[in-house]
Amino acid sequence: MRESWNRRTGAVLASACALGIVCTSAPSASAVVGGDPVPDGKRPYVVQIEERGDDGTWSHFCGGVLIDSRVVATAAHCAQFVVQGEVEVRVVLGRADSSTPGGTVVTGDHFSVYSHPEFSTLTNTDLGLIVLDGPAGPTSAALPALRTKLRPGRLLRAAGWGRTDLADPDKPSRLREARLPVTEFDTEGGIWDKQFICAGTTRSRVAPGDSGGPLFDPNASGKAVVYGLVTGETNTCQGLFTNLADPAIWKPFREPLASHGLSHVIPAETAGPAEAA
Question: What does the alpha-carbon distance between residue 148 and residue 222 come to, in Å, rounded to a whole number?
């Protein structure tokens, strides 16, 4: 991404990085390490968000995921600059290869963007929503019931466009995905393991810059279930994901979604913690 974007995001994340707690970097291009190319049509709910450059061309900005026929979930640290009018974006749905003209392109005059008003890298608040004026064609993914817990070792997947080797700046145009195990990590008394999801290994992981991309179970027998969104990494976690089963994260979005007739998007809350199957 452009240096100007890196400077903007760097200001937001500086306090946390200075503490050595979170090392989230600016979204450049989603980077899935140790993954495989995704065939056309296989993951229609994985969304690419593109930004308009000064020369009028469009390039990768952040990842996202369609969680309803009209709602794309992404990271707050992507959405907030759109809300502030600093970045012009468009949404591309149903396209696996960004070098082709396929898919459905939705421009900014046909959607509304909301960012978590209390976003902080220190709390599970890195969520933004893009609400489309009309339903999108691709199949959407589902969200887990609120308070769902993931057991360590559970294999999930992450998908995105971009670098597949942290040492190589070249980024393939084809969507790629990798299998990531849910892991436990030592937080030294911190909050990370209580609020976030950690997943990945040194060989199979998302990389800094894979912002807003989904952590999901493809669930061959039904709808894919999206448990988290890429937010960054810490000194003890290869991939830190916003936890979409946290009830608190949805509170600021209840009113905006209701105003669009989309209250049903927020998942139901279980009576107590439930372990994902």
Answer: 18
